[in-house]
Write a structure and sequence with these properties.
Elements (H helix, E strand, L loop, with lengths): L1 H9 L23 H34 L4 H21 L1 H12 L8 H18 L8 H20 L4 H21 L5 H8 L3 H13 L8 E2 L6 E2 H4 L8 H19 L3 H12 L4 H8 L3 H29 L1
Antiparallel strand pairs: 1-2
Helix pairs in contact: 2-3, 4-5, 4-6, 5-6, 7-8, 7-9, 11-14, 12-14, 13-14
């Protein structure tokens, strides 16, 4: 009692008007019951299976109506019902695609896009939704993950031009390099790597060349180490058609020819236009102009000769300018 009175004397007094301390909050930290979690998972699976049974019934009914050649409107409504249930099943399980794609992206190179993995995995999810049988003793997430992973692997193999043997050797080379670095505390030499892989130095160089061919680089990627940013496309010769210089030259030649045609006499200009642009025959042009076929040919020959002389003169001037 004496000690309590002593403490009361040294304890600071609470200012007037200050709020009374709140009572301590009691937290309910009771662990979540495993039975409740199990029941929730079971209810979710049962709801999913119910949707799958509805989807199968809707598809079966649509097939029956189609076989019986029912009214188009009835078949359309039944097909829309089946598609609506299928879309709901896909939307509910998109998370499985993201989960599988995320796990697989960890072991893939940076050149592989996560979004591409998700897009490829969606095809696996759609296939799983259409082929799943709710009567089987297996949960849909387990079945769908296998289909999704298979679809992603198929897409990766299709887009990979490197043989599987090269990929396997590359994995062994990487593992051996890491093990030797850990063992020696430094980057290993080529001789040490060859000794670990039991291969000759020439085989190691050949393997590295094969791996270099599998590296993806964008033609739009720019090299900023030089004086100016130059993309790979700027350094690659284009052989699939006329290059930029040829295109500009052809465009300029068309412009000059058009100007020279406009300088021709009216009859020659009309013959050139009808023959080369309108694709009329000499006889048809003669009917339009009211002259004979031979006269049209003479006018055409004179116009072409005049254009050739003019273009030759322009080429000569251009050559002297350079």
């Amino acid at each position: 009692m004496q000690r309590e009175r002593d403490l009361e004397q040294v304890r600071p007094a609470r200012p007037e008007g200050s709020p009374t301390p709140a009572a301590p909050i009691e937290l309910d930290l009771e662990p979540v019951q495993e039975d409740a979690v199990s029941d929730a998972v079971s209810d979710a699976n049962e709801e999913l299976n119910r949707l799958f049974r509805d989807y199968q019934r809707a598809r079966g009914e649509h097939v029956r109506l189609k076989q019986q050649k029912a009214e188009p409107e009835a078949m359309r409504k039944q097909r829309e019902l089946a598609d609506k249930i299928r879309d709901e099943l896909i939307v509910r399980n998109v998370r499985l695609v993201k989960y599988v794609a995320g796990r697989m992206a960890i072991g893939l190179p940076a050149s592989v896009s996560y979004d591409d993995l998700v897009s490829d995995g969606l095809f696996g999810l759609i296939d799983a939704v259409e082929k799943f049988n709710p009567e089987l003793k297996i949960q849909f997430p387990t079945y769908a993950k296998t289909r999704i992973k298979g679809a992603i692997l198929d897409a990766l193999r299709t887009g990979d031009w490197a043989p599987r043997s090269v990929r396997q050797k590359a994995r062994k080379l990487e593992e051996a390099t890491v093990e030797l670095e850990v063992q020696f505390g430094r980057p290993p030499t080529d001789e040490e790597i060859c000794g670990r892989l039991c291969i000759r130095i020439g085989e190691l160089h050949k393997l590295r060349q094969d791996l270099h061919k599998t590296i993806l680089r964008s033609l739009d990627e720019r090299d900023d180490e030089g004086d100016g940013a130059v993309s790979l496309s700027d350094m690659v010769e284009f052989r699939g058609g006329p290059g930029p210089e040829a295109t500009v030259e052809q465009s300029e030649m068309r412009r000059i020819i058009a100007e020279e045609i406009n300088k021709l006499p009216e009859q020659q200009r009309l013959v050139i236009s009808l023959y080369h642009y309108e694709k009329l025959t000499m006889r048809e042009i003669g009917k339009v102009l009211g002259v004979t076929d031979s006269r049209v040919s003479q006018v055409h020959t004179a116009a072409v000769r005049r254009l050739r002389v003019r273009l030759s003169a322009l080429r000569g001037k251009a050559a002297q300018g350079f």
